[in-house]
TrEMBL record:
InterPro entries for this protein: LRR_dom_sf (IPR032675)
Keyword Repeat: yes
Keywords: Leucine-rich repeat, Repeat
Gene3D superfamilies: Ribonuclease Inhibitor (3.80.10.10)
UniProt-recorded name of the protein: TILB protein
Keyword Repeat included in the entry's annotation: yes
Amino acid sequence: FFFKLPSDSFKYLGWCDIEEHDVRGNQLLCPRVREGPSEEELFFRREEHTLKKRKQVTDTEKWEKRLQENWENCAELNLSFQDLGDLYQVENFKRILRRLIRVERLWLVDNSLTDLSAIRLPRCRELNVNKNHFRSFKQLPKIPQIQHLSLAENNIMTLSGISDFRHTPLESLILKRNPCEFQERYRQLVFSSLPNLKMLDGIPKLPEDCSPPDIRFFYKMCTIL
């Protein structure tokens, strides 16, 4: 027999749809980003009975919900481990990211993200997107004020596009466990592309990281007279 769980009636509700609370978006430490499926999606899932429980939302209620979320005033936010398995969840996730105009520290760890190039985070100084599926620096959001960027355990193949961060205040970069880490003269290439970078993969900039690659190669050669 099929028995519904006590939480079944709340499975498509966001936190802001629950009555009798005064919590705002910028007070949540690690909110789950969820949005219910469309009517068509519910039909194919054979869950159209849930439509009866939904009320018609007015424009005023939509605006009140937007104000309650208050993402525009978030300065620090953790949206990691979202398990974004459906398209409507991904779209709602990006909707929130587009509203983070004041966020300074943002964690998006392990969300299976592939492309956030359409997102702009104008004040973000620290961004952690470890354990995602980025394949290029071009797929990252626009982060002109970035100082600390962590990209560990993605799928970045080459350093192409890394020079886009040359004109940012980037000081610390983590690229551990990306294929590009195994590129010949990896550290030298990164530091030559980012002269202002102070730390790579948790290791401070070393004198040998500043040496031109061709000179180091020359020193390793053996001259036979």
